[in-house]
Amino acid sequence: MASKLTPIQKKKVRAVISDYCLRSEVNRLKRHYSQHRPIEGYGLEPEQLQSDDCSGFESKVFFYVMHKTHIYLLDPLDERHGWGYTGSQYEYLKHTPAPKDKYLVGDMAIFGTVWHTEHTSICRKSGTTNTAIFTSHGHENWIFNKDAPEPISLSHEKAIQTLVGVYRHPQLV
Hints:
Elements: H1 7-26, E1 31-33, E2 50-52, H2 54-69, H3 86-93, E3 108-112, E4 117-125, E5 133-137, E6 149-152, H4 157-162, E7 163-167
Parallel strand pairs: 1-2
Antiparallel strand pairs: 3-4, 3-7, 4-5, 5-6
């Protein structure tokens, strides 16, 4: 298991996460939804054409950040580069919940139920349930019916109804 990061490292990691997510939203037409495994396109810039699903997107965010900052980060899909999914992500993160209404960039919201996770999104702007902005990379059955990165709020009625929880990457605790 990798060690926790220093405050300076956390700041660098969060800055790159926020930038990557925002750039992905701006370039959403170059991001397509696919549940294909293994996940492909690790290391690509957000402006490049690529396909992934919600959990694949987050795995690629952390991979990208690791290579931009040279700070070793564990994959939030539980070290299953290219193969994990939202369920493996939940199993990896469930012991590190984020403090309610104190969400930080890099925190991950998981939706569905603890027995059947359906979707995940990553915080790109810190804040509360009402003010934090999460980047959601679609899902064909998800309430936010866009299939490319878009900003969402946890205060959305359907998000409130299906939110399992918001979790912090163990190295960012």
